[in-house]
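Human: If only I could read backbone structure tokens as easily as an amino acid sequence. Take your time, and here it is.
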Amino acid sequence: MMTSAKLKKTIIFVIFWFLLGLSFIFFSGLIILKANGYQLNWRYWKLIKTGMIILDGEPQDVTIKINQKYLKGLPLKMANVSPGLYEITVSKDGYHVWQRNFEVAAGKAVTATNILLYLQPVQDAPAPADLKIQQVINEYQNRSAGLEIKNTEIYWQGNLVTRFDSQVLAATVYPDNHHLVFQLGNEIRVIDLDGANNILLFNLQSPEPTAITFRDNGRTLIFLDDGQIKAKIIR
């Protein structure tokens, strides 16, 4: 006949292995669900379909802040993201900050794969010695095909990019075809093609309309200012 002490020990042993097995099944299920894009909302004990955030751009040695979470380096692929609003900033010392707000939907991915950070401040550079003013103008006109300036508004391929309080004097497409460089007054600015991240790069000496072109895959911006060809390193 089993003594009470031995019975108690047996019961504890059975309960232990039962709970261990139950925990294994539970957490294995969570791992499988996570691998398939689901997660458990612990507050409401409800399964939710997650989304994804995909980021890429240059430079790659950056600090990324997603709400209150800090990450390092591009490219970034962040899976199992709970649906909701996310404020994302990409930063690096000596560069302007890139910032966007994204709404992550269940089962969907939000992407920003053309992130560019620009030097702050930009750096003076020598203009190519063999470059002529007319060549700068010709390159500017060719690069600006598809762009239309309507007083204070910029259109790209018939779609409004953005509007301003003052007249747009010049605008051209950046070499990656995802950004615009434009002139307001004596300011040279750059903006994402969807109208986000409007950044002042530098000021011209003259408020007259300029012509803009690029070298080194957009790292060097060449422009006309006060009748001269000048250059700035912007990335």
